[in-house]
Every structure is written in C-alpha cells, then in structure tokens.
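Tutorial handout. Part one gives the primary structure; part two gives the three-dimensional structure as tokens.
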Amino acid sequence: MNYRHILLKCFLILPLLLTGACIPNSESDTVFKPVLKGNRVIPDGVSRIYVEEITGRDISDNIMDSFKTSLRRQMNSSDKISAAASPDNSDIMLRILLDEFYSDPVKINSLGLVIEKKMRIVAYMYLKYTKTDEEFLSNKKVESEIVYSEVNIPIMSEYKALTLLTDQLAERIIAVTTTGWYLKK
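Part two.
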C-alpha cells in the first residue's frame, strides 16, 4: 500500500469536508446558537407559577426588595412561565430561601482604599407541583456573584451592583425552574 498516496488524499479531502460543514445552509444557521441539552424540571404544559414564599436569613430588606422586584421582572418577561395570583390558579409553587449575602473587598490600593468589591448571594429553591404535591426540586442551591468598582472604570455604584446581582440570581432561578440548571458566565 502506498501510505503517502492515502495521506495526500486525506490532506486534500479533509479541508473540503470541514469547509462544507461550516457553510450555513439557511438564514437561521448564520448566527451561532448554542444548543443547551438537559431535562425539563417541570412537565410540558406547566407554565403558571405561584411564589409561595421568599425568606432570608439575615438578609436586609433592601436586598429582599431588590430580589423580589428582579424575580417579578424575570417572570413577566419569560416566555415559558407566568406568575399566578394564587396557589389555586398555579401549576407549580416556588419557595426561595436567601441564605447568604456578602460584600467583601477584592483589591485594595497602596493607600488602603478599596478599589474593587465582590458581592455574592446564595439562594435555595423548592418547587412543588400543585396538583400532586410532588416536589420537583428540594434545597436546590443557586448562586450569583459580581465584582465591581466604585473608583475604577467601568465605575459601578453599590446600588447598581446589587441590582445586577439580584437580576442575575432571579434569571438563574427562572432558568433552574424551566430547565433544571443555568450557565455560569
């Protein structure tokens, strides 16, 4: 056998195959869209969610209010679930425990001034199917973290950082509710 001949064919054909595989065959393929594989936590047809309870251990009212606002906003903008006004009108019930929140310095300059901070929040969520009282999720940990600076560019206030943190946590809770998991960015 002539191995040089076989290798030459492979080097000529392989780039053609790869080029053909990368050419989009429709307009929808022109933009890369990652395919997220996973199992739905909630059954098909389940879409109305009632937030039974949001509690927090040593969490300030300011953080609780910011999170509740973020969660409502995420539910209202979701195309997979909608908020129900009562447990009787819901398919699933959600309970959330905000367990930890902290804000710590990350970088300190030579003068001892904090130039970067990190905020982190941890929540545990519980999902229950109202028709059968079956628990889909119990004690599911969902967390969010943001690093920001009030002095270095891009400058971000503590209020804005808290808003982004609670928005991210709410987005992740909705993702866990509908898909069972979330991507850490």
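Part three, for discussion. The first strand starts at residue 48 and ends at 56. Residues 46-179 form a domain with the Double Stranded RNA Binding Domain fold (CATH 3.30.160.150).
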